[in-house]
Each structure stands twice: as structure tokens, then as C-alpha cells.
Write a structure and sequence with these properties.
The complex is a heterodimer of chains A (about 475) and B (about 300).
Chain A lengths: L12 H14 L4 H4 L33 E6 L6 H14 L5 E6 L2 H10 L6 E4 L7 H6 L7 H5 L18 H4 L1 E2 L2 E2 L2 E13 H7 L7 H13 L3 E3 L8 H15 L2 H7 L9 H17 L9 H9 L3 E7 L2 H4 L10 E4 L15 E11 L6 H11 L2 H11 L16 H13 L3 E2 L3 H4 L1 H15 L5 H17 L9
Helix pairs in contact in A: 3-15, 3-16, 10-12, 12-20, 19-20
Chain B lengths: L4 H30 L16 H7 L2 H33 L4 E2 L2 E2 L5 H13 L2 H12 L6 H8 L11 H29 L3 H9 L4 H12 L1 H15 L3 H7 L13 H11 L3 H25 L8
Antiparallel strand pairs in B: 1-2
Classes of the chains: A alpha/beta (about 475), B mainly alpha (about 300).
């Protein structure tokens, strides 16, 4: 009896079970057969539906009655924007298509087996703590190239391509080695947050230079409030983000580009060293040591209780803390201050990007439907609807027009406008999860005073070098 | 009769053996197979031979985890068994004897239930509970009291040389109840006459414990040691939920299962994670075999 299949793809579940049963009886080890169980992904693929006819209202050529499955991460933004706004828009455009909606808080738990068995859903909101590794998905050819979507005419104005309706940098944020694979939909601005009320009551003003910043921290400390804090237990990346933002302001955008591209010695660039040294000092003088053992929600709550002055985060913070924020607190953003007078970028420069990733599975049954779903999301109605439901701005430029944002997002939008062209982003944490982990751990070591800036850069550089040499990790460039 | 024996036996064995092979043996075997590949969890894996194992040799996090298992392996069984024995002795034979029958201390029945409580709670709940206990500021159970009394807070999970011991304390707290019950059952089966005879010869409680209870409990102790040893190779849930920065600070509390989890589900390196899993498998197996071999000793018949 030969139990090693020539083509694992030819095995159906019944044969597997029947043969496994036979193995059980005969107690014959059959490793070859086992490869048909968990790791057979990619061998058997979905049969993809044929395209429909292209027309002015259907530029991507979607088959109008092909079903589409939508999986939404049910986190900070909930799922209502999908069920109440985007799915109805798709349904309106293609009344005959059936939409299967699913939402979860653990994307990879639900989807890993779907990908491994070669039957992924069309449209996925890949986000949250258990998101699937974008780099691995791209490297395995699981993601649909979005070039066709970006070049398609937009829903509202057929004369305008979709790529011209979004804020600059959106497509780059979702590109891997120059090819767009991910739609990052929510406009995100990073900075340091404070309470407008606390500052007004005490006559404090946001700092633009480093001297002002230290003076401000000292003044807050004198009031008996912890001047600055981040959560070491699970959110150390909020802090490496600040350090690298500082480095980019000192040495220019190239500094971050070198880090992302794993250039030799990228972490030891002088700008990064200056930034790390300056922030290590903030850590030694102005952070409460106990914050290393707290989670982000704990520290954020303390800020809401006026026990913490400044807290680094992205502009999802205001929405996340909505329940705990006392009335009149008034979140405000201040960009990371300049370190020296000779900084390459001005004080207004900041890190901003598009966040919250969505992708279309290349190996799903109806990838065209997924692309069309994205086109509908990027319409004015789709973006406006999203902003109204979740109170966050999207990357669609016309989507936030006339919408009155709460004070925090209003201040971050104003800061983004003030920054003009001096907006930058970084990507290494999405590309190389291991480097992100190492940077987090090392940042705690630095900020809570166990190592100095040199040792900090030394150990992250070492990990970056190891990743560069590791042939099993897919590499990305920008 | 003899004629129909084998079909009969096979008929009974078929279902359980099949289930066992499909759901236990096959995944185990497959872990060995995956550990030889660089599978990312999505498309077909590529064979890389022993590369993953070679990489393990100079992976700092891996060796740190192994080292922690060493500490756990000594500390967890020793502390747990010592405490559990002490409590079980008090609960069963520590009190006065009435009518020739050894009794536990006053309220023994109540304590027995209380000691068992942690065993009833899910591990994740215990971890969350101890997050509150260890919290490094005034809202923590221990530090709240300390700070009220004017002391500085103790940063249990944050100080690198204290973090692992804080975790061990939780593991011990959780395990003791079960072993109190296990040892109680063992002690209950020791005949009262032996104690009586020893007492008549003038033995103190301490002598009773070391010369009577302990030798007669040897088999139970051995089982406890193996169980606790195997538990020392796990500790994943407590570390994952309780520790700072997932096995931190800077890997000070990490364990193999934590590293396996991180490599598989964060870095998508399923092949490498499987290699760690295989290493863990052999470590556990070696430990169990060694313990059973070393602690082999004539058990006393009574």
C-alpha cells in the first residue's frame, strides 16, 4: 500500500481520514502523508470567478453577481462603518452581489487557517494585536496588487483617478518594494499629547525648542505631576517612535530611510545617537519608574486624571480614551520639539501616515470584487460615512470637508497642515517584526536607565544586521 | 473463545487509537517535519534541513529561556513541595490525637477548601489577578499598602532580578493547593498505628514527620516532582499575561513557550518555532526519564 501521495493536492479530506485511520491501525509512520494536513496551503486554490464587462460605472470589470466576503477587525473603530456605510455602498452599486460580513478581534486566529487551506476571504481589515504579518503575506504572494485600483477612475469624478483623491503618501505607506498591496485608510498623526485645560490653568505653553521642552517638564514636575510617561509593559513602541521622530528632525528624512532599508550602521547615525541621548535624559529625570510595569491604558488613564503631563501617541488616542476623559480635558497635540538650532527639519515637522490596513486576497474567489469594495470605500460618500461613524479622518481628501472634529483630532489636523511638506513616515516595524520587538525592549532599557545611548544603538544595530543576513526573512526597500 | 479475541480487541482499540494518532501523534510528528523547513504559515514550506537547529545554538533569547527553565525546575518543585508538605502535615496529623486517631489542626477542613481555591481558577485569571497584586503604583494591592505606610513601591515585575521570582511566587501560590490535597490523600493512607508506636517511643512531631511521614509518602512525592517539573517547562500563560513586555524586562522572565509563541505568531517563523518546540519536547522527556530513574527506591510496604 503506497500511502505517500504523488500530488498532495489530489487528496481530499476523506482520503486523508481514511488513510490516517489505516495508519492508526497499522501504526505505520507516514510522514509524507502528514504534509497534506497543515502545510498544504497554496497547493489547492480557489477557482476564481470570471470578470464581468467593464463599463463607466464598473471600471474594474467586476462580475455583478459574484459574492464577496468582508472580514473586519472589531477594535477601536468597531465594525459599524462597514455594515452601515461601505457594504451598503457596494450593494447599491452591485445589487445582485451577496456580501458576507464577519468581524473579529483576532484576525490571524480566524484567517491563518483560511490562508493555509487556500480559501481566503476577498476583503480583509488586517489590524489589531493579532494582525497577520503583512511582510509574510506579501512575500507569499497572498495580496492583490492594488495598482489597478489606484489607476481606476474615482466614483465621484470619472475624470480623476483614485490615486489623485487621497492624501500624498497613502499609496507609498501600503507599498512593498514599490508595489502597492495595502490600503491604509485612516489618516494618522503622531505627536506628544497634553490636556488643553491643564496647560491653560497653569499657564504652560507647548514647547518648540528643546530648552523650552526641558523648562516645561521641570515646571510640570514642580506641580507634583509626572511630567512625561509612556507604558513600558506593552507600548514601548510609542517611545521609540518619539526617538526616531526626533532623529528625523535632526538629520532629515534620510535617517529613517536608512533604517528602513537596513543600511549598514543605520542605527548608529549621529542623528539617532543625539536623539537617544536627549531622550534618555528625559527618562532619567521626568518619568516615573513604575510606568515600565504599566499598560498603555493605565498611563493614559493617569493622564486623564491629570497625574501625567505629556504622553506620546498617535491621534487615535482621543477616541480610545473617550470614556475616561473628563469633560473639558481637551486633548491637544504638540509635535516633538526641535533638539538643536541646526536641525534639518523645522519644529513643525512630524510623523504622519495612513493607518489601519486593508487588503484584497489575491487567491480569493473574487479579487476584483475586493478592489471594487476599496474603490467604494475611497468614494466621498464612503469616506464621509466612515468619519461620521468613527470620528476619525480618512486619507480621502474630500472626505473630512465640513466635518467638525473633536479638539484632539482638530489639533492634529491643524498640526498636519502646519507641517506642510515636512511630513515623514517609517516602515521597519511593519516589515521586520523582530526589529520592532528588539527596539521596544531596548527602548525600555534606555528610558528606564539600565543602558546608555551607545549600548542602545549597539544592540538594535546588531539585530538589524542579523535580520539583513537572514535569508529566510523577505526584504523590503523604499 | 480464543478464536474471536483479536477482532474483539481491535474493535475496541480502533476508535481511541485512531483519534490519538490523528490528533496527538500526527501533530507531534508534523512539528518535527515543520522544524526542518522555513514555513511562514501560508504557502508551501521549503526544506532547510538542520538550519533552524543550528540557529538555535546562538540565539540569546533561546538560551535565556532554557536557563529560566533551569531555575524554575529547581525552585518550583522544591518550594511547592516543601510548603504543601508542611500544610498537609498540619492538616492531617499536626493536631492533637483523640481516641487514638491523629487529627489535623483546628479548622483543618476549612483550610483544605481554601488552599484548593487557586486550583479552581483559570490560569489566565490568576495572571490578571496578580497584575493587580503586583501593580507598581498606589493602586497595586501590595504597593498600595507599602506606599500608605510611607515606603517606596517595590517594582516586582520591572526589576530584572526580581521579576522571575515574582512569577515563580505566583506559580507556587497556584500549585500548592493541589499538592496539599495530593499529600493529604497519601498521608491518610498511612496507618495510625505507626504514628502511635513512634509516639510511644517518644518521637516528637518533627521526628514523626521526617522518620515516618516522609518515607511512607515517597511514591507520592516522586509523582509530585515529575508533575511540577513538567509544569516548570510550561509557565507560558502566567508569563504571557503577567510579565512586562512579553517575557521582559529584556527577556528576564521569558520561557521557551513564550519564545515559540513569539516566533510563530509574531514573526511568522513557524519552522524555527517548531525547532524550539522539538527542543522543548526533548528537554521535558529527558527530565521525566531522569527523575524517575534517579528517584527509584524501594517503597515501604505496609
Amino acid at each position: 500500500m503506497s500511502i505517500t501521495p504523488e500530488h498532495p493536492a489530489a487528496l481530499d479530506r476523506r482520503t486523508v481520514l481514511r488513510r490516517a485511520a489505516a495508519v492508526g491501525m497499522l501504526a505505520t509512520p507516514a510522514i509524507g502523508l502528514l504534509s497534506a494536513c497543515a502545510t498544504s496551503g497554496g497547493d489547492e486554490e480557489n477557482e476564481q470567478v470570471a470578470g464581468g464587462t467593464k463599463s463607466a460605472t464598473n471600471p474594474l470589470g467586476v462580475k455583478d453577481d459574484a459574492p464577496i466576503e468582508v472580514v473586519i477587525f472589531n477594535g477601536g473603530y468597531g465594525e459599524k462603518y462597514a455594515t452601515d456605510v461601505h457594504e451598503p455602498l457596494y450593494k447599491k452599486a452591485f445589487p445582485k452581489a451577496e456580501i458576507k460580513h464577519q468581524s473579529t478581534q483576532a484576525i490571524s486566529t480566524i484567517l491563518q487557517p483560511r490562508f493555509a487551506s487556500g480559501k481566503p476571504p476577498e476583503f480583509v481589515n488586517n489590524s489589531g494585536e493579532k494582525l497577520m504579518d503583512f511582510g509574510a503575506l506579501v512575500a507569499d504572494g497572498q495580496l492583490q496588487d492594488l495598482t489597478e485600483l489606484w489607476d481606476a477612475p474615482s466614483v465621484d469624478d470619472p475624470a480623476k483617478k483614485v490615486r489623485d483623491t487621497v492624501v500624498p503618501g497613502t499609496i507609498e505607506a501600503g507599498s512593498f518594494n514599490g508595489k502597492p498591496y495595502v490600503l491604509y485608510y485612516v489618516s494618522t498623526v503622531f505627536g506628544i499629547w497634553y490636556s488643553g485645560k491643564l496647560f491653560k490653568d497653569n499657564g504652560w505653553a507647548p514647547a518648540k525648542t528643546w530648552d523650552e521642552f526641558i523648562t516645561l517638564l521641570t515646571a510640570i514636575k514642580a506641580k507634583g505631576i509626572t511630567p512625561y510617561g509612556y507604558a513600558g509593559a506593552n507600548a514601548a513602541y510609542y517611545q521609540w517612535n518619539v526617538i526616531l521622530t526626533q532623529a528625523a528632525k535632526i538629520g532629515g528624512v534620510e535617517v529613517l530611510k536608512n533604517i528602513d532599508n537596513l543600511e549598514d550602521g543605520a542605527w548608529k547615525q549621529d542623528a539617532v545617537k543625539q536623539a537617544a541621548t536627549a531622550w534618555a535624559e528625559v527618562g532619567s529625570k521626568f518619568i516615573d519608574k513604575s510606568f515600565e510595569g504599566l499598560k498603555h491604558t493605565d498611563v493614559q488613564l493617569r493622564q486623564n486624571q491629570y497625574k501625567v503631563g505629556l504622553y506620546p501617541s498617535g491621534d487615535w488616542l482621543e477616541g480610545e480614551q473617550k470614556k475616561d476623559t473628563p469633560s473639558g480635558f481637551e486633548y491637544q497635540l504638540m509635535p516633538v520639539p526641535s533638539l538643536t538650532a541646526s536641525d534639518k527639519l523645522p519644529a513643525t515637522a512630524l510623523r504622519a501616515t495612513a493607518g489601519e490596513g486593508y487588503f484584497v486576497s489575491a487567491k480569493s474567489a473574487n479579487p476584483k470584487g475586493g478592489l471594487e469594495y476599496m474603490r467604494q470605500m475611497l468614494s466621498k460618500a464612503g469616506a464621509k460615512g466612515f468619519t461620521e461613524v468613527v470620528k476619525a479622518p480618512t486619507v480621502v481628501t474630500a472626505g473630512s470637508e465640513g466635518f467638525a472634529f473633536p479638539p484632539g483630532v482638530a489639533s492634529s489636523q491643524a498640526a498636519l497642515k502646519a507641517a506642510g511638506q515636512d511630513v515623514f513616515n517609517l516602515y521597519f516595524d511593519g516589515w521586520y517584526k523582530e526589529l520592532d520587538t528588539e527596539a521596544r525592549t531596548a527602548t525600555n532599557e534606555l528610558m528606564f536607565g539600565r543602558i546608555n545611548a551607545d549600548a542602545y544603538l549597539e544592540r538594535i544595530q546588531k539585530r538589524a544586521d542579523a535580520i539583513k543576513k537572514d535569508s529566510s526573512v523577505a526584504k523590503f526597500k523604499r | 473463545m480464543r478464536h474471536g479475541k483479536y477482532p474483539f480487541v481491535i474493535g475496541f482499540l480502533f476508535a481511541p487509537v485512531t483519534l490519538y494518532v490523528v490528533f496527538v501523534i500526527a501533530p507531534y510528528a508534523q512539528a518535527f517535519q515543520i522544524s526542518m523547513t522555513n514555513w511562514r504559515g501560508l504557502s508551501a514550506p521549503q526544506w532547510v534541513g538542520f538550519d533552524n537547529y543550528r540557529r538555535l545554538l546562538d540565539d540569546g533569547a533561546f538560551w535565556k529561556a532554557v536557563q529560566h527553565h533551569g531555575v524554575l525546575l529547581l525552585a518550583l518543585p522544591l518550594i511547592t513541595i516543601a510548603i504543601a508538605l508542611f500544610f498537609a502535615f498540619l492538616l492531617n496529623v499536626g493536631g492533637k490525637s483523640s481516641g487514638g486517631q491523629r487529627q489535623g489542626v483546628w479548622g483543618a477542613k476549612f483550610y483544605r477548601v481554601v488552599f484548593f481555591f487557586p486550583q479552581v481558577l483559570a490560569v489566565a485569571i490568576i495572571a490578571v489577578l496578580f497584575q493587580m497584586v503586583y501593580r507598581p503604583n498606589e493602586s497595586g494591592l501590595i504597593n498600595g499598602v507599602l506606599m500608605k505606610l510611607g515606603f517606596d513601591p517595590v517594582l516586582f515585575l520591572v526589576r530584572p532580578n526580581l521579576a522571575l521570582w515574582s512569577i515563580i511566587a505566583v506559580l507556587v501560590w497556584q500549585a500548592v493547593g493541589f499538592y496539599v490535597v495530593l499529600f493529604s490523600a497519601g498521608m491518610a493512607s498511612i496507618p495510625g498505628e505507626i504514628y502511635e508506636a513512634a509516639e510511644m517511643d517518644g518521637a516528637t512531631k518533627v521526628t514523626l514527620f521526617f522518620r515516618v511521614t516522609l518515607p511512607l509518602l515517597w511514591d507520592t512525592l516522586q509523582v509530585a516532582w515529575v508533575y511540577l517539573g513538567i509544569a516548570a517547562f510550561d509557565a507560558f500563560a502566567i508569563v504571557a499575561v503577567l510579565s512586562v513586555d512579553g517575557g521582559g524586562p529584556d527577556g528576564a522572565t521569558t520561557v521557551l513557550a513564550m519564545e515559540i509563541y513569539r516566533n510563530a505568531f509574531v514573526y511568522s517563523k513557524y519552522g524555527y518555532a517548531s525547532a524550539m518546540g522539538v527542543a522543548l519536547f526533548f528537554l521535558t522527556l529527558t527530565f521525566a526519564a531522569l527523575t524517575l530513574r534517579l528517584s527509584k527506591r524501594e517503597s515501604v510496604e505496609y
